[in-house]
Design a protein that fits this description.
Elements (H helix, E strand, L loop, with lengths): L9 E3 L2 E3 L10 E3 L1 H5 L5 E7 L14 E8 L1 E6 L4 E5 L3 E4 L5 E5 L6 E8 L18
Antiparallel strand pairs: 1-2, 3-4, 4-10, 5-8, 5-10, 6-7, 6-9
Length: about 140
């Protein structure tokens, strides 16, 4: 995987950190996966300008989780149902389900993060580091 360099993104041995502002300016996609080196799932942030609506889309295989970081968005599903999501709101959408989003504000940007993947949950595979004990 080729890694694009982003100013402000820090990488260490098995980790990386960034701020959303490190990944771009203005409306549009912020490519979190490529910037931080995520390999196991897709993850992006989207900055929607005031009043902007995305086109409808669906996926062949990956389901998605949407998390609203700031602002208010309306998500519309293929069956015509709409839901308003405020900061902290989440929506799961199965791969073949059509979806589109709209920033409900006429004056402020909205920011949401999308995590996508397929093939199921890994399960609880966490382990304590040497010397750590349960509390």
């Amino acid at each position: 995987m080729s890694e694009q360099s982003f100013e402000g993104v820090e990488h260490g041995d098995g980790w990386s950190v960034a701020n959303l502002d490190d990944l771009g300016q203005g409306p549009g996609f912020r490519k979190i996966r490529s910037a931080l080196g995520v390999r196991a799932f897709g993850v992006n942030a989207i900055v929607l300008p005031p009043g902007y609506a995305t086109g409808s889309h669906f996926h062949d295989e990956q389901e998605e989780l949407y998390f609203v970081h700031s602002g208010r968005v309306e998500i519309e599903f293929g069956d015509g149902t709409t839901q308003e999501l405020k900061a902290g709101g989440m929506a799961w959408v199965d791969a073949p389900t059509h979806r589109k989003l709209r920033n409900l504000s006429d004056t402020e940007e909205a920011v949401y993060v999308i995590v996508g993947g397929k093939d199921g949950y890994v399960g609880r595979d966490g382990n304590l580091a040497p010397g750590e004990t349960h509390r």
